[in-house]
Amino acid sequence: MSCCAGSISSPLLDFFDARERMVAAARPVSCNEKVELSQAVGRVLVDDVFATLDMPGIDNSAMDGYALRLNEICEDGLPVELRVPAGAEVLSLPAMSCARIFTGAPVPLGADVVIPQERVRLDADERVHIEGEFAKGANIRRRGEDTCEGDILLSAGTRLNAAAIALLASHGMGEVDVLRRLKVALISTGNELIEPGATRVPGQVYDSNRAMLKALLMQSSCDVLDLGVTADSVTELQQTFTQARDEADLVVCTGGISVGEEDHARPVLERLGGVSFHGVAIKPGKPFTLGYLGDSPEAGIPFVGLPCNPVASLVGWQLLALPLVHGCQGRIPAELQQFPVAAGFSRQGPQGRRELLRVVLD
């Protein structure tokens, strides 16, 4: 997205101030659990994890070739006295000889270089002749080169992806301590909304926001409490918000947060908790709301109110709600990526708001 900024003089909250307040409002879930590594993808580490091994555990060959002493290379060539596959024990290299070695195999004691097989010529007597120049230590992965026992492998707050899980597995870890999943109550409001797949009559709108947000929450490794569509009714909204407060860690609601006569979500939110801020100086997404359900922002459940417009809802989620979700998961919210590029178009931003445009980066 690209940001076209007009001057922000309205009482609406500046976008960057709003984002900072979202990050500050996050309170990580407190409970943790031990899970099998195979079930840990997307989970967040409770504590720092330390290396249990040197990696590599031994000096080993980075490729298929021949291990030898660099100062013993001679015109007559060197006989092959050893064959060392991966998984073999560490052997000693006899003087004035070399070892046929394979990728990952332990380098024989005494050898100080591995010559790639592409740079070797065998004569009729099967003696090895070297082509080219090599430095001592070439093509040898040294013990502890990647990590040493006791090094920090992953820091607390890391979200485990495939690479992180592979790293933990390489150190023999079958289980890991993670924070429990964040449980998010998802609510859509609006008398006009119906479920996708239902028969539509004029005036009704398929609820695309909830489908989108549920997918986004699941992509973020949240457990979703889908409370469906709630009618524009103070009584029904109060019942739904109360259930969300009692059963979830965070509430995400779309619609009903503006100031129209049928926008009841905000008054109900104020009755059951409070509003931290309402309205951000962005387009789309101006009605974005942060509040809480409970006695105070510190003791209550965070409440995110997104606009009913699907594009505005997506913008509010991606740029404002997602950092809060990450913080509640115990993750460090990622910084916004910002870099200057030349615009291939001209556009006047709206007075008093930052316009967030979908663009294509060429």
From TrEMBL:
Record's function text: Catalyzes the insertion of molybdate into adenylated molybdopterin with the concomitant release of AMP.
The entry's protein name is Molybdopterin molybdenumtransferase
Report the superkingdom from the record: Bacteria
SMART domains cross-referenced by the UniProt entry:
MoCF_biosynth
- Give its E.C. classification number: 2.10.1.1
Write down the Gene3D superfamilies for this protein, in alphabetical order. MoaB/Mog-like domain, MoeA, C-terminal, domain IV, Molybdopterin biosynthesis moea protein, domain 2, Molybdopterin biosynthesis moea protein, domain 3
Q: In which pathway does it act?
A: Cofactor biosynthesis; molybdopterin biosynthesis
Going by the UniProt record, its keywords in alphabetical order are:
Magnesium, Metal-binding, Molybdenum, Molybdenum cofactor biosynthesis, Transferase
Catalytic activity reported? adenylyl-molybdopterin + molybdate = Mo-molybdopterin + AMP + H(+)
Q: Which organism is it from?
A: Halomonas llamarensis
Q: The MoaB/Mog domain covers which part of the protein? A: 185-327
Family the UniProt entry places it in: Belongs to the MoeA family.
Q: Which PROSITE patterns match?
A: MOCF_BIOSYNTHESIS_2
